[in-house]
Specification:
The complex is a heterodimer of chains A (297) and B (262).
Chain A lengths: L1 H8 L1 H9 L4 H27 L11 H4 L3 H5 L16 H36 L1 H14 L8 H8 L3 H25 L3 H9 L4 H23 L1 H16 L3 H10 L3 H29 L5 H5 L2
Helix pairs in contact in A: 2-3, 6-7, 6-9, 6-11, 6-12, 8-9, 9-11, 9-12, 10-11, 12-13, 13-14
Chain B lengths: L5 E10 L6 E11 L4 E5 L6 H9 L6 E6 L2 E2 L7 E4 L11 H5 L1 H5 L4 H14 L15 H13 L5 E5 L7 H18 L2 E6 L2 H7 L2 E5 L6 E6 L11 H28 L1
Classes of the chains: A mainly alpha (297), B alpha/beta (262).
The structure holds adenosine-5'-diphosphate and magnesium ion.
Chain lengths: 297, 262
């Protein structure tokens, strides 16, 4: 677990180093601030515990909830049946739980991104489709994804599909509307260049509009990443299946505060690694966006 | 004599805005000959860009007709290339891909496009930059690349909307000399918009001077100086003074109107 924290701490400096390989000093500085920030936070907690201000049962400090890895990991079972003691391969079970949640997030985001961007493009390409669907989409967009949870369970029952659906729906409407507004704000000059060079409507969409809107859409995707994690945890906690959300619920039901904080640490680190991964993808796929703009959220 | 390549007959354009229509152009009658270099000169806001966009086919005139190469202009066509004031290269393409974008749309194969790109870039004086991204080029180089992109489709007339306005003075004068070379060996007509008097005298066969809005043609001044032109020669100065006199009233009027609007 300590290794995991350290890995998290050295994440951004490594990224900074690959952007500007000559700026080693800068990377070290960033790493330093990370360690200091995390150390301060954990330190204050530990101090509160040492002086007896924080009830060790309710608010166990990091050295307590991170200490006994095997004790914690026993709750992460690979069989998808929470609460059953896992005899061996604690690390493996833990990894599988994290992977199960992560895959739901990835699948939901991927489906949501592809479907909503496609729909947004079709809506602007075919006027009739826009007239038919936009009012409904505009009305459905403000509904909180949590309100979709019963619907997800009615339609998909138990297991992966409802959790994936929840992530999907949390992104879908926002992203569709965002795609449309991005299409409407594509630079007049780019469209004019396309027209002057003899582009047909289809070519204009394919070669000008899609590449022009992708960077901002990716930004929207990144901003919805944490929302997706929230939604997947809720879906898992409400009996959709396995995963980190299920462990959080188990910790609540058994009043296991150590397990609760341990899982929170896992969720934090995983979400953070996800954001790093998305940034890397953004830098490679959207190579024309300057790195400074990629870092901005 | 051959008929003009581009003919504007009684062209007018009123922009539809929220409250009242803005009359940008009125009663424009103009012919541009093959291989002629024509400069539009006028105070800012007088409708020079508007006329260029009408000829390009990006906008429709509200009255009158425009012909290009004997056919009525109803939309953009590859016989007319347009170069914008700001950098208009697509950031998601390399410089080479930008230059041959028009050919790609026409279905020219990738290998041929790469060869054409190399040739075009050489023609506009850009060396080995085909694989670079637009933001790795200087402002002047980007405008050269934009020129190469327009030339790729072998237009009969090249429309240039203040293409050097964003460049510094030294780069600008280099680019002017260079544009004259491109004009010579492409054999295209040039329609060049500027509000710089010296730029007009340096480049034009004929300078079309516009009135303040609504833009009308105030006068057409032939520039009979031999090329290359020396901006310090007395003849250059005389023409530039003449144009300054023609423009002064219009600039004053445009300024007064802006004050009134405010
Ligand atoms: N797309 C547009 N919609 C409405 N008004 C416009 C538009 N483009 C230009 N105009 C107006 O038309 C007038 C002429 O503009 P423009 O042709 O850009 O002038 P110039 O290029 O000579 O500076 C200006 O008053 C401008 O505000
Ligand atoms: Mg203009």
């Amino acid at each position: 677990m300590r290794a995991l924290l350290l890995a998290a701490g050295s994440g951004p400096p490594r990224q900074a180093a690959s952007v500007q390989p000559t700026r080693m000093a800068q990377a070290v500085t960033v790493a330093g601030w990370w360690l200091l920030s995390l150390g301060l936070f954990a330190g204050m907690w530990e101090v509160a515990w040492a002086f007896g201000w924080a009830d060790p049962l309710l608010l166990p400090p990091p050295h307590v909830f991170l200490r006994n890895f095997a004790d914690q990991a026993q709750f992460f079972v690979s069989s998808d049946v929470v609460g059953e003691e896992s005899s061996a391969g604690a690390l493996r079970s833990l990894a599988m739980t994290v992977v199960a949640s992560s895959l739901r997030v990835v699948a939901g985001l991927l489906l949501g991104f592809v479907c909503s961007v496609t729909l947004g493009l079709l809506i602007r390409y075919f006027k009739l489709l826009g007239n038919l669907t936009l009012p409904t989409i505009t009305l459905l967009a403000p509904i909180s994804p949590i309100a979709w949870l019963p619907v997800a369970i009615f339609i998909f029952g138990i297991g992966n599909p409802p959790a994936i659906f929840m992530v999907f729906i949390s992104l879908f409407f926002v992203m569709t509307l965002s795609t449309i507004s991005q299409i409407d704000s594509v630079s007049r000059t780019y469209l004019n260049v396309g027209a002057i060079m003899g582009a047909s409507r289809r070519q204009l969409f394919l070669h000008v509009i899609i590449p022009a809107i992708l960077p901002s859409l990716f930004m929207v995707l990144r901003m919805n990443l944490f929302g997706a994690w929230m939604v997947v945890l809720v879906a898992e906690a409400t009996g959709v299946g396995s995963g980190l959300g299920q462990i959080v619920m188990l910790a609540r039901n058994t009043f296991n505060s150590s397990l609760s904080f341990f899982t929170m640490t896992l969720i934090g680190v995983t979400g953070f690694l996800f954001d790093i991964a998305l940034r890397q993808i953004q830098r490679r796929v959207l190579f024309w966006v300057p790195p400074s703009a990629v870092g901005r959220l | 004599m051959n008929p003009p390549l581009v003919i504007c007959s009684d062209v007018g354009k009123a922009w539809q805005t929220a409250d009242t229509p803005v009359v940008a152009l009125e009663g424009i009658n103009l012919g541009i000959a093959r291989r002629e270099f024509v400069v539009f000169l006028g105070p800012s806001g007088c409708g020079k860009s508007t006329l260029l966009y009408l000829i390009a086919g990006l906008e429709q005139a509200t009255s009158g007709t425009i012909e290009s190469g004997g056919a009525r202009v109803t939309g953009p066509g590859t016989d007319r290339g347009l170069i914008f004031q700001e950098s208009s290269l697509f950031p998601w393409m390399t410089v080479g891909e930008n230059v041959t974008f028009g050919l790609k749309l026409q279905g020219v194969a990738a290998l041929e496009r790469r060869q054409v790109a190399a040739g075009l870039l050489r023609k506009v004086g850009l060396g080995d930059v085909a694989h670079k991204r637009p933001d790795q080029l200087s402002g002047g180089m980007r405008q050269r690349a934009a020129m190469a992109r327009a030339l790729a489709l072998r237009p009969e007339v090249l429309l240039l909307d203040e293409p050097f306005a964003a460049l510094d003075v030294q780069t600008r004068s280099k680019m002017q000399q260079f544009l004259v070379e491109v004009w010579r060996d492409s054999g295209a007509s040039m329609l060049f918009v500027t509000h710089h008097i010296d730029e007009a005298v340096a480049l034009a066969d004929r300078v079309v001077v516009f009135t303040a809005r609504p833009g009308r043609i105030k006068s057409v001044v032939p520039i009979d100086l031999p090329r290359p032109r020396d901006p310090r020669s007395p003849a250059f100065h005389a023409l530039s003074d003449h144009l300054t006199d023609l423009l002064r009233d219009e600039v004053d009027r445009a300024f007064a109107e802006q004050e009134r609007v405010r």
